[in-house]
Amino acid sequence: MSRSFFKVIISKGVIRVHFLLWLTYFLLKLSVLLFTGERYSFVDFLLSHLLIIGLFYTNAFYVIPFYERRKFFQFILITCIELGLYGAFRFLIKFILVLSIAGVERVTNFRGFTAEVFYLFFQFYIISIAYRYSINRERRIRSIEKEKAIQQDLTIELQKDYLQTELAYLKAQINPHFLYNTLSFLYSKAVNISTVLAESIMTLSDIMRYALSNDVDSRGTVLVEDEIIQVRNLIKIYKLRFNDTFFIEFDVSGELEGRRIIPLIIITIVENAFKYGEFKEADAPMQIKITFGDDFMILTSFNRKKVINKNFAGKGEVGLKNLIKRLHTHYGSRHTYEVIETKETYITNITISL
């Protein structure tokens, strides 16, 4: 008997169900005997049905597996031996043990006895086959479900590995040390020429340092506070660049301390809004709102569309597609990504359960 089937039979829940089913069967059989007034020996009734129970489970867990393994000769041989043993034990119970206990003789109708043996044997033999089939079917269903779960987990892991490799590849395109050294050199040259230029270079250096070497934990997340700082740096650069023609409402509410998200989520949305959105209208400023609740974050970006050179249209979609993949891989059903686009406006809503 295989271990899986042994686990099935010793399960407390299964034992309880089997006990109730057999008890119901016995009570119904006794009720029929009492109702019809048919003479019977309780000892004969009890022992013969205990023998049937043994027959049922022997077939289900020992005999039928030979057929499943295509050992047909052994299957037929054991079935015949089992039938012979069942008939012998049934004879001992009915005509020897019961008679000795009752102390009286009974007429032995061997033809009727033989018919009864064959009938009961094959009746419960067929029932045990049906039971074995139902157990096998349940095992196959569970195996398929388990395999699907494993495949889903494997797919998610592969997606994570792919995105991590992709991110590592992008980072490797620029030597961080070379970049930092170059920006430091430019800052040292610009500080005596233009404080605005020097400040812009230093702010850009901070953003690049965060993007290329952010403090990621074992779950692949960073502190929200660090991400917000870099968003403010990005806004600062745009304000320095466009002076009095840059209008934005940037609002962060809720408790930030200790909150973590995967990196470059907020900054990607903001940078994309700057690239494709209109921010030069004082009466219709760009709006970026981030709200933190007890266990969630809501990021909303609203901007009016601006005319874009067709040669550059669509080039920012790579960053957004990568962002959507990363959100799906890390948060799955714990996030929503919604875009509401009209002829003149563009709204992005991201909700994440932290």
Automatic annotation (TrEMBL):
InterPro entries referenced in this protein's UniProt entry, alphabetically: Bact_2-comp_sensor_kinase (IPR050640), Sig_transdc_His_kin_internal (IPR010559)
Keywords: Membrane, Transmembrane, Transmembrane helix
Residues of the Signal transduction histidine kinase internal region domain: 166-245
Signal peptide: none
Organism superkingdom: Bacteria
GO molecular function, one term: phosphorelay sensor kinase activity
Record field: transmembrane: 20-36, 42-63, 75-97, 117-135
Pfam families (alphabetical): His_kinase
Cellular component terms per the entry's GO annotation: membrane
Full protein name: Signal transduction histidine kinase internal region domain-containing protein
